[in-house]
Task: structure prediction
Amino acid sequence: MTIKMAPAARAGAAKPGNDERAEAFIAGARAPAAAPTGKTVVNSRWDAELLRQIDQAAKKQGISRTAWLHVAAAEKLAR
Amino acid sequence: MILCVAHIKGGVGKTLVAASIAAVLAQRGRDVLLIDADDQGSAATFAEIRADAPGAAAFATVQLYGAAIRQQMKALREKYEEIVIDVGGRDTGSLRAALTVADGIAIPFVPRSVDLWAGAKIAELVSEARDLNEGLRAYSFLNMADAQGHDNADAFAALKAMPGITPLPLAIVRRKAFPNAFSGGLCVTEQTPRDAKAVEELLSIVDALYAQEVGDDYQDGARRAGRRGQAR
Result:
């Protein structure tokens, strides 16, 4: 079961000033926060031979399997 | 217990370890929540595959990022007996937020110089986090270790030199059983045929993190495999 959590109210501070210090610590991260992608994870079962052919086609184009499937789906929908 | 499986270095097997720990705890009857705080979302994908995997012990999974991890934790820790957070790969707000609320951090290290170099940075981050979270325990262990050779022992010596982080004298060896089970949404403890060595290595780490029964001498998981065998 995968649940996406909605933003919630702040938990109570453990001691005065702790939340502010924590916020400063969290904000000090060197890497940027993950941007919301709006993407949904989908799992599906594929025939092994079809998957092999997809992987082969993706490799020829130098892209990932996921990217290849995105392109194929976009092309199909654009028709 | 809130356990954060984290590193600021990618490719050290955090997600597999975090998901495996969650699965073992669920198998032991604990009410477990796995938090996927890595923007790659691999733990969440694992959980979705796991939902269709026969024989998989159930645990809940949520995706949380950044300060929300800290904000949500008060409610979540009341609801679940065990919370495992998969986070990191970089110095992110998610990692830092997890460190402010976790009881412990487990840091997997691949026994290679480039991975061990990152030890000083994560040790520094843990030290900073302890200003906010005094009780934060930190453990390191070898993951994707060699089945034989001197590199594990050399790497363990490097782990011992990291200030403020307790090195577990254990290792998870690079074995196909781990990714094979993971790709099917399972933990090695649930996979058939059973790889006894892989199971032993994982359970040794879980026991050490949760029971804190750790010996002083380096003893890699592969050598311990014969002792407990398939008892679990």
The mean pLDDT of chain B is 87. The first strand of chain B starts at residue 2 and ends at 7. The interface with chain A takes residues 39, 41, 44-45, 47-49, 51-52, 58, 60-68, 70-75, 90-97, 100, 128-129, 131-132 of chain B (CB under 8 Å).
